[in-house]
């Protein structure tokens, strides 16, 4: 496995485009498109929120029923959620317009939206955006980067990743982009993520691979505890690497799962660290827990604690908040055995041992907590299971951003 500089155009046969359609934002790109030169198999994971946006429902049907997919059309600014039958009709209109412009069936087009809930899409602008993007489709690095930029809402920077590995003597590439900064507390995947690969793999195994990596990547991040109506992760595989199609869970399949995990973990961490108003990525590692399920529960409890997140923002080694968050997670453990460490690029420090303070230096702890990425390591001393969750600090700006988001 080798990490490379790339995004959704890194894999063979994938092109991207972007445009400023004026969907809601003015003076910036707000639409993007991914296109495969040849038909691709597609897999997806979606929000478990009962309130599902129209694009989620459309994509669930396409991924489940369409024999192939070749394009994804995305817009930022308006989520097309809670928009009734009119919103569902707009998904079909979007797919029809893209299918017509690209010369592919409407059922080969996936759609994705992000932004304000409850507003209807201005379809004249969206159709014009599709018309503007199709002639601009390119397989360049710049096209991928611009597409990743175009789908942002409150994100402060684009999020991309790409990895290469070898299958059947062929070089295979997996690339992707995502967006997400607020309303991030996934229970399937993330707000929006798009992965492309030139691997040849069956539809069934592609879906199994994606589903298998979601729990330890997107499901382990949280910014604010709110699960979006639009959470969508899509993977397209077009087979242009030329490997023998993977149809069983052999060593090649396992290698792909590892690479897919790495790409999605990278994107997930980027989203957690770019939480609305955030100044630091907050990572929580629970080690030596009784079971993986308990480790996951404990790590999530700490990473979502508002009091702990506020302490991270204040560079305050307020370890009592972490121990408290472990305690109300619903997991039985002995608090008088827990050790806690803070770690960052500025050093590592044991804060508590067997449930009590170590007499650590507050000055040293503050230094560690001033880094851009901070890790809390919770040693439960109960077993050998572990889990890692990612979040961010809680700042004044989070409230400012969300107090007037619609306006």
TrEMBL record:
Does Repeat show up as a keyword for this record?
no
Parts forming coiled coils: none
Where on the tree of life does the source sit, at the highest rank?
Bacteria
Which keywords, in A-to-Z order, does the entry hold?
Acyltransferase, Amino-acid biosynthesis, Arginine biosynthesis, Autocatalytic cleavage, Cytoplasm, Multifunctional enzyme, Transferase
One GO MF term: L-glutamate N-acetyltransferase activity, acting on acetyl-L-ornithine as donor
Q: Does the keyword DNA repair belong to this entry? A: no
Reactions catalysed, semicolon-separated, are:
N(2)-acetyl-L-ornithine + L-glutamate = N-acetyl-L-glutamate + L-ornithine; L-glutamate + acetyl-CoA = N-acetyl-L-glutamate + CoA + H(+)
| EC numbers on record | 2.3.1.35, 2.3.1.1
- List the InterPro entries: Arg_biosynth_ArgJ, ArgJ-like_dom_sf, ArgJ_beta_C
Matching entries from Pfam families are given as: ArgJ (PF01960)
Site features described as Involved in the stabilization of negative charge on the oxyanion by the formation of the oxyanion hole, chain residue numbers: 114-115
The residues that the entry says bind substrate are 153, 179, 190, 276, 402, 407
Catalytic residues, per the record, are 190
* Annotated localization: Cytoplasm
Q: In which pathway does it act?
A: Amino-acid biosynthesis; L-arginine biosynthesis; N(2)-acetyl-L-ornithine from L-glutamate: step 1/4; Amino-acid biosynthesis; L-arginine biosynthesis; L-ornithine and N-acetyl-L-glutamate from L-glutamate and N(2)-acetyl-L-ornithine (cyclic): step 1/1
Q: Which family does it belong to?
A: Belongs to the ArgJ family.
| Task performed by this protein | Catalyzes two activities which are involved in the cyclic version of arginine biosynthesis: the synthesis of N-acetylglutamate from glutamate and acetyl-CoA as the acetyl donor, and of ornithine by transacetylation between N(2)-acetylornithine and glutamate.
Q: Which PANTHER family match?
A: ARGININE BIOSYNTHESIS BIFUNCTIONAL PROTEIN ARGJ, ARGININE BIOSYNTHESIS BIFUNCTIONAL PROTEIN ARGJ, MITOCHONDRIAL
Q: HAMAP family per the record?
A: ArgJ (MF_01106)
Quaternary structure per UniProt? Heterotetramer of two alpha and two beta chains.
Q: What is this protein called?
A: Arginine biosynthesis bifunctional protein ArgJ
The gene designation is argJ
């Amino acid at each position: 496995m080798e990490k490379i500089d790339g995004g959704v155009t890194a894999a063979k046969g994938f092109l991207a485009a972007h445009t400023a359609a004026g969907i809601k934002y003015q003076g910036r790109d707000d639409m993007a498109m991914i296109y495969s030169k040849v038909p691709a198999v597609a897999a997806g994971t979606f929000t478990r929120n009962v309130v599902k946006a129209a694009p989620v429902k459309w994509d669930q049907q396409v991924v489940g029923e369409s024999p192939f997919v070749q394009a994804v059309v995305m817009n930022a600014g308006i989520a097309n959620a809670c928009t009734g039958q009119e919103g569902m009709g707009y998904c079909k209109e979007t797919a029809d317009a893209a299918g017509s412009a690209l010369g592919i069936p409407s059922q080969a087009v996936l759609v994705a939206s992000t932004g304000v809930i409850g507003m209807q899409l201005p379809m004249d602008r969206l159709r014009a955006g599709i018309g503007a993007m199709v002639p601009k489709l390119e397989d360049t690095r710049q096209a991928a980067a611009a597409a990743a930029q175009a789908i942002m809402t409150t994100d402060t920077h684009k999020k991309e990743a790409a990895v290469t590995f070898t299958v059947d003597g062929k070089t295979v590439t997996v690339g992707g982009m995502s967006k997400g900064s607020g309303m991030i507390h996934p229970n399937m995947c993330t707000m929006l993520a798009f992965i492309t690969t030139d691997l040849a793999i069956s539809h069934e195994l592609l879906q199994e691979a994606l589903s298998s990596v979601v729990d330890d990547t997107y499901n382990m991040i949280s910014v604010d505890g709110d699960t979006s109506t639009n959470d969508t992760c899509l993977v397209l595989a077009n087979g242009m690497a030329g490997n023998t199609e993977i149809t069983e869970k052999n060593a090649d399949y396992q290698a792909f799962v590892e690479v897919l995990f790495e790409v999605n973990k990278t994107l997930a961490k980027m989203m957690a660290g770019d939480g609305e108003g955030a100044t630091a990525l907050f990572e929580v590692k629970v080690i030596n827990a009784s079971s993986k399920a308990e480790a996951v529960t404990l790590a999530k409890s700490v990473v979502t604690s508002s009091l702990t997140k506020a302490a991270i923002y204040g560079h305050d080694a307020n370890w009592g908040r972490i121990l408290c968050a472990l305690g109300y997670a619903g997991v039985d453990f002995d608090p008088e055995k827990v050790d806690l460490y803070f770690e960052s690029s500025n050093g590592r420090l044991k804060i508590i041992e067997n449930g009590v303070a170590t007499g650590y230096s507050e000055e040293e702890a503050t230094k560690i907590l001033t880094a851009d990425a901070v890790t809390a390591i919770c040693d439960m001393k109960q077993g050998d299971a572990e889990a890692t969750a990612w979040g961010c600090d809680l700042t004044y700006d989070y409230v400012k951003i969300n107090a007037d988001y619609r306006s």
